[in-house]
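Please check what follows.
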Amino acid sequence: MENQLEMPKKEKRRLPKIGRRSVIITCAVLLIAAALVLNIILFGMGEGTVDPATPSGEEIEGEGNTTLVEGDGYFSATQVSRQRARDEALEVLQSVVESESASEATKTEALLEIAELARAMEAEANIESLVLSKGFAQCVAVINGDNCSVVVSATELQPSQISQINEIVFEQSGILPANIRIITK
């Protein structure tokens, strides 16, 4: 009778053992990546943007190009915010790579994300330098995956300037003109 009252033994799970720490690190990496994307989206299309239909904003005709008007401190604030978000993301990714408890797959994923961030940062810097060399006073480029937003200091852009910026972005990042937003400040 005692045998009937005994609780059945728990079966061991047959799933591969994933450490709690690895799950936490992976979630942290994903959260940082999501925060970075959200930051780029908010600074690319959020704070202080003006509806192109209003008199203070004007839309440039062409695929993926929009013109918006805002204040002068935008360029430095955007660059500082972009750098801060990237520094935080790189710090977390680097801690994942250096972690002894992280799995090799997690470390490899973190290294790939670091390499992708480095490529985007290099392309953005090159785009900004080349656009400035075309006579614009200020420029900020933000790459988010297969999209790029370029903000230049100008009141209006001529079709030739739009073409130059599209060409620079394509040459430096491989992003197609349909996925490039050009915004004037």
Notes: The mean pLDDT is 76. The helical segments are 2-5, 20-45, 74-98, 104-133, 159-173. The two ends are 84 Å apart (CA to CA).
